[in-house]
Amino acid sequence: MSTSTRAGRYHIEVDQKTCIDCAGCVSICPTRALDMIQLDLTCQDEACIGCDLCTRFCPVRALTLEERSGPVRA
Amino acid sequence: MRTVDVFVIGAGPAGSYAACALARQGYEVLLAEKRPQVGVPVRCGEAAGSFDELRHFLPLADEWIAGSINGARLFGPGGTVVARRIPGVGTQLHRDKFDQALARQAVEAGAELRTGLHVTAIGPFEADGRIVSALDRTRNDAPVTVRARLVLGCDGVESFAGQWLGLRKPWPIGDVHSAVQYVLDKIPAGERFIDLYAGLDVAPGGYAWVFPKDCDTANVGLGIHVKGKNPKSARAWLDEFVAARFPQSNILAVVGGSVSGGHSLRSLVTDGAALVGEAGHTNNPFSGGGIMNALESAEEAGDELGQALREGNVTAARLGAYQQRWHKRVGRTNDLFYKLRKLFFTMNDSEIDWAVESLAKACDNVEQSSVDYTGIFKLAFAMHPKLVVKATRMLW
After folding, report:
1. CATH, range A3-67
2. Which of B114, B229, B237, B258 to mutate to test the interface with A (most CBs of A within 10 A)?
3. Does the ipTM exceed 0.90?
4. How far is A48 from chain B (nearest CA, A)?
5. Predicted structure pTM score
């Protein structure tokens, strides 16, 4: 599946209370969808491919992968 | 548009020391840190080299020294312990204060430090340098562009600069550990040894550590290799480790991050730009330690890249000399450690125990000034033939 067909369908939700700002997820995100702006983690949904690597890697389990149910896959 | 000689991305140890070295040579250096404050939050076990090794880079100061490290103990999963007493072998730091002192040193040398300056792109190489685009987080994200003759990517383990420059990719999951650390109280420092614990029941694919700080506090953490669909989190592993060993302690702070251990990059340099510190994979891939390596790479970069600027030649071909110096100083040793890491992370508990026992024997023999490697190898083959085959394949 190409990146373009999956792009925009996923979002990484951050539980700010649990997140310890370590940016571990940023270092392993294969598409650079995640970035730490100042001390807040942000997810560029159009870049996220839903690989789930960050949620498994997060040492404190602060991330969840959300999949949009709306638009049908191209 | 503003023009500088050198644009340094990231005011960690590598960035601040490289900025300092180049500013001392008279170059106009802009040191950009995306965070509001240098050194915060701490994402580090905070163990570094000896006082003498540190003094080479920065005058010693009480504010960033938590204490000395006088040796190490390694605990195998089956209860084997190997201890080595080497007084003053290392230093336990207050990393936030340490990073701030290094940044201050760069400023005193003439570099301009800008916090809250978040670099978002590095332009292509042109005759008069590269254009760096950034957002000024202290001024409502106002866009900033600066032309620099030389750009140094010192943005650490998650280096975006390295990726924009085409020198590196995001980490493969096998080369990074998911790590978390507590600062705990009520842990007497004793002789100020650092303790390392290996074993699949402690930290699968990694190890746990206890580094004494000051006033009965210690950094207690671990890194694990993330495998499978729904693995137990590093924090869950650490909670178990702490409950079993330090039930009386309180958690004063939580620190986390990825501990990287990659092999050397094919190239640390491109036209008009170079990677310094962990952005260029300088960490020791086996221990995950990187402070001294970052400073050493910054020293080589400051020296060699300063010369290149003087010659007016910042092409990849010229800057490659920095990479060669780094490789000779540390890089080639790191490549051996990378192979050791690969081997270690495939070992089961009985193999780890055997390795710890052999190390204990080797250490005993060192005091008799002869290490019997052949004996160790023979014993290994008798006990763990598969391990020896694996090791032979990986190391040679």
Report:
1. 3.30.70.20
2. B258
3. no
4. 14
5. 0.91
